[in-house]
C-alpha cells in the first residue's frame, strides 16, 4: 500500500477538536475534494458507522469506521471503491491539539499505477490533505463566543 500523511497543530483543546472532526455532517465543509457525503448505516458516529461520498481523486467510495476512541482517533476502511485505509489521530499538546491524518491506498493497475501515483495521485492527495488539515485549524481561529458576548 502507498502511504501519505500530514499533521496540523490546532489552537484548541483536544475535546473540542475531536468533537468537530468526528462530526460526519461537517466533513464536506472542511474536507476538500469530498462531496455528496451521506451516512449509509443507522450508526452515524463511532465503530460500525459507514459513509458514502464522492472523492475528487478516487470517485465513489464507502468507508466504515473502526477502532473509534473518544479524543484518540479512528480508522476508516474502504468497503466500496478504491481500496484505502485512513487514520485520524488526535494528541493533546499542552492546551493545543495535534491532528494527524494517515492515508494508505492501492491503485489497481500494476504497471501504470506507480507512474500515475508519482505524477498525479500522490501530489494531488497530498495537496488535498494539507488544505483540509489547514481548514480544520482555521475553523478554530474564527471569532470566539464568550458568555459575556452572548448576552449582547
Q: Number of helical runs?
A: 4
Q: Can you name the CATH architecture?
A: 2-Layer Sandwich
Radius of gyration: 16 Å
Helix/strand-derived class?
alpha+beta
Main β-sheet, spatial strand arrangement: 1-7-6-5-4-3-2
Overall pLDDT confidence: 88
N-end to C-end Cα span: 54 Å
H/E element string? EHHEEEEEEHH
Task: Work out the number of β strands.
Answer: 7
Oligomer: single chain
Poorly predicted ranges (pLDDT <50, ≥5 residues)?
144-152
- The tally of domains stands at 1
Strand content: 35-45%
Determine the fraction of residues in helical runs and give it as a percent range. 25-40%
CATH class identity: Alpha Beta
The CATH topology assignment is Alpha-D-Glucose-1,6-Bisphosphate, Chain A, domain 4
**Main sheet characteristics:** 7 strands, antiparallel
CATH superfamily: START domain
Shape: globular
Description:
- The chain is an alpha+beta fold.
- 29% of the residues lie in helices and 39% in strands.
- The protein has one domain (2-141): Alpha-D-Glucose-1,6-Bisphosphate, Chain A, domain 4, CATH 3.30.530.
- The chain has four helices and seven strands.
- It has a seven-stranded antiparallel β-sheet with strand order 1-7-6-5-4-3-2.
Considering the chains and any ligands shown, give keywords for the structure.
globular; Alpha-D-Glucose-1,6-Bisphosphate, Chain A, domain 4; 152 residues; alpha+beta; single chain; disordered C terminus
What layout of secondary structure does this protein have?
Layout: E1 2-10, H1 14-21, H2 27-30, E2 34-39, E3 50-55, E4 59-69, E5 73-80, E6 84-93, E7 96-105, H3 112-139, H4 147-150
Antiparallel strand pairs: 1-7, 2-3, 3-4, 4-5, 5-6, 6-7
Amino acid at each position: 500500500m502507498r502511504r501519505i500523511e500530514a499533521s496540523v497543530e490546532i489552537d484548541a483543546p483536544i475535546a473540542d477538536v475531536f468533537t468537530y472532526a468526528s462530526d460526519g455532517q461537517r466533513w464536506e465543509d472542511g474536507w476538500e475534494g469530498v462531496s455528496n457525503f451521506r451516512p449509509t448505516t443507522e450508526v452515524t458516529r463511532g465503530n460500525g458507522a459507514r459513509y458514502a461520498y464522492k472523492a475528487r481523486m478516487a470517485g465513489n467510495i464507502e468507508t466504515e469506521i473502526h477502532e473509534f476512541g473518544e479524543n484518540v482517533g479512528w480508522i476508516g476502511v474502504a468497503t466500496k471503491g478504491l481500496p484505502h485505509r485512513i487514520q485520524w489521530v488526535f494528541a493533546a499538546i499542552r492546551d493545543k491539539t495535534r491532528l494527524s491524518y494517515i492515508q494508505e491506498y492501492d491503485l489497481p493497475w500494476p504497471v501504470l499505477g506507480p507512474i500515475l501515483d508519482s505524477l498525479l495521485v500522490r501530489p494531488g492527495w497530498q495537496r488535498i490533505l494539507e488544505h483540509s488539515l489547514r481548514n480544520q485549524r482555521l475553523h478554530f481561529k474564527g471569532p470566539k463566543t464568550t458568555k459575556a458576548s452572548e448576552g449582547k
